[in-house]
Amino acid sequence: MMHFEDFTVGLSRKGGAAPVSREAIIAFATEFDPQPFHLDEAAGAASLLGGLAASGWQTSALMMRLICEELLLDASSMGSPGVEELRWSKPVRAGDTLTLVWTVLETRASKSRPDMGLVKFRFELLNQKGEQVLWMQNVVMLGRKVTA
Questions:
Q1: How many domains are there within the chain?
Q2: HSE (side-chain half, CA atoms, 13 Å) at 37
Q3: Is residue 148 situated within a structural domain?
């Protein structure tokens, strides 16, 4: 279990794999983001995206799953006060496999909660070519190690 004290500025890790299928793109879009370029190849080709592309919200959800699997489920996470920045850099296509990279940007102990520290992360999703498709920056609240 990782705690606040285990995260130092500059610490970075890469891992996980989230494959993206045509069926998953269309299923997500049908339910949550039914814009034509997420539902149909021809509409996608006629758009600025240049082809069928996953919703940015689907890509964000895949990133969250990887953040949980690769970091939060083995950490003393106490949640997050919110996302500071999120950018979709490149369309995600059917057949892509996404990998997470996380980097610690800042750390600080909470002044009001001695049992908690705050860690600012930069999270990136890369496709199988190493191209960044999404990045996000936010703070995660982490429990501190108990000292006897």
A1: 1
A2: 15
A3: no
Q: So what's the pLDDT on residue 147?
A: 59
Closest listed residue to residue 97, CA positions, set 133, 71, 68, 64: 133
Q: How far is 68 from 63, CA to CA, in rounded Å?
A: 9
Residue 148 has pLDDT above 60, yes or no: no
pLDDT at residue 54, as a whole number: 98
Rounded-to-integer distance, Cα 64 and Cα 43, Å: 28
Residue 82 sits in a domain whose CATH number is 3.10.129.10
- List the one residue out of 86, 93, 77 whose CA is nearest residue 38: 93
Q: Are 82 and 9 in contact (CB under 8 A)?
A: no
CB of 117 within 8 A of CB of 104? no
